[in-house]
Amino acid sequence: MVRYLTGIQPSGILHIGNYFGAMRPAIELQDKGEAFYFIADFHALTSVHEPQVLRKNIRDVALDFLACGLDPDRVCLFRQSDVPIVTQLSWILSTVTPMGLLERCHSYKDKLARGAQPFHGLFAYPVLMAADILLYESDIVPVGKDQKQHLEVTRDIAAKFNEAYGDILKIPEPSIREEVSTIPGLDGQKMSKSYGNTIEIFLEEKALRKKIMSIVTDSVPVEAAKDPDTSTIVSLFRHFASPDQVAEMQEQFRRGGFGYGHFKARLFEAIWEYFASYRSRRKELQADQNYVDSVLAKGAERALSVARQTIHRVRVAVGIEE
Ligand code: ADP
Ligand code: TRP
User: Fold this and answer.
1) Which residues are near ligand 2 (CB < 6 Å)?
2) 109, 145, 148, 190: which is the annotated catalytic residue?
3) Which CATH number is 203-274 given?
4) Distance from the CA of 291 to the CA of which of 84, 171, 195, 243 falls in 20 to 30 A?
């Protein structure tokens, strides 16, 4: 069976851009093969330096995925750090990783350009990511296009290792998700936590309404006709409403006589309704103190059993185990 593996960084609260761009596609894949999904908490240490925040994010990511339909009986869901063997493989891989390969990574350079400190962990991030992928003998790694280069690095590292020590590591195939559409944020730019323009999936009612009301619009007066094609409200609404409902909103934009407040209220209702069943599921799961822990413990056990076999082969191959 084909094994899909992907990592989710617990570096913030999940927003509707993450939902349509990453969560929903990952959840849909659970029916297509054997899925291994992990919460990349070692990776998140490169950007989250507050322990309380990290702890909360880790639980919230697990809860959010489970609430949105991830089935822990079909998916092996685990925390990266519950299988510390991955850091051992990461070290071994780093001994066959040319510096130039990492120096060329855009993601590292972009992060520095945006003010991140040049820490070794940030630089070595792609090696740990290679270890994640190679440890679990992944066939296919579904990621967004920002991670494409990291997958190429993974393949290069695996090839270097195999060249040096024999055919030990399985070389994975990338699967780059087409961004069907980029979800815009409150200000009309791509929704991203780095831009502070996000709408989180599980906001309380009042907070969600307030966010929707703060969507930036132009100052065309109520009675005048408005352009639906350039409106952030309409582009968001498309994801939560039927084609008929979208057509109706577009028509009202063009007709005039409706203010932006009216359209924002419609959008709020649509989003609130869209996530209603996930919200109640999330409440139920949250009420059971042990649920998330037990899912993650079961996932870790399964992940560990695969990891132990790979690390054994690697250790024998490099000569530190008989
Ligand atoms: P952020 O930009 O908020 O930091 P991440 O980079 O952590 O989000 O996003 C994780 C994944 O979520 C991305 O690889 C991408 O697939 C998806 N994603 C994030 N923002 C959007 C968006 N605005 N539209 C579509 N997909 C998105
Ligand atoms: N770097 C990925 C991101 O930022 C997360 C990640 C870590 C990952 N390890 C991985 C993704 C292994 C796929 C496979 O989104």
Assistant:
1) 5-7, 9, 40, 43, 129, 132-133, 141, 143, 147
2) 190
3) 1.10.240.10
4) 84
Task: Please state at what angle helix 85-94 crosses helix 291-318, rounded to 10 degrees.
Answer: 40
- Phi and psi at 220, nearest 5°, equal -60, 130
190 burial type by CB count under 10 A (0-12 exposed, 13-18 middle, 19+ buried): middle
pLDDT one-digit tens code per residue, 143-162: 988 899 999 999 999 999 99
Q: How far apart are CA 321 and CA 317, in angstroms?
A: 8
The pLDDT tens digits for 106-150 are 999 999 998 999 999 999 999 999 999 999 999 999 998 889 999
Distance, CA 206 to ligand 2 centroid (Å)?
33
Is 7 touching ligand 1 by the criterion CB < 6 Å?
A: no
Residue range(s) occupied by CATH 1.10.240.10 in the chain: 203-274
Which residue among 160, 170, 193, 298 is the active-site one? 193
Would residue 160 show up in a list of annotated catalytic residues for this protein? no
Instruction: Examine the residue annotation and report whether 32 is marked as an active-site residue of this protein.
Output: no
Q: Classify domain 3-182+289-318 by CATH number.
A: 3.40.50.620
| 277 C-beta neighbours (distance < 10 Å), count | 12
- Its pTM stands at 0.94
In order of 40, 107, 108, 194, 283, the CA distances from 114 in angstroms are: 22, 11, 10, 10, 37
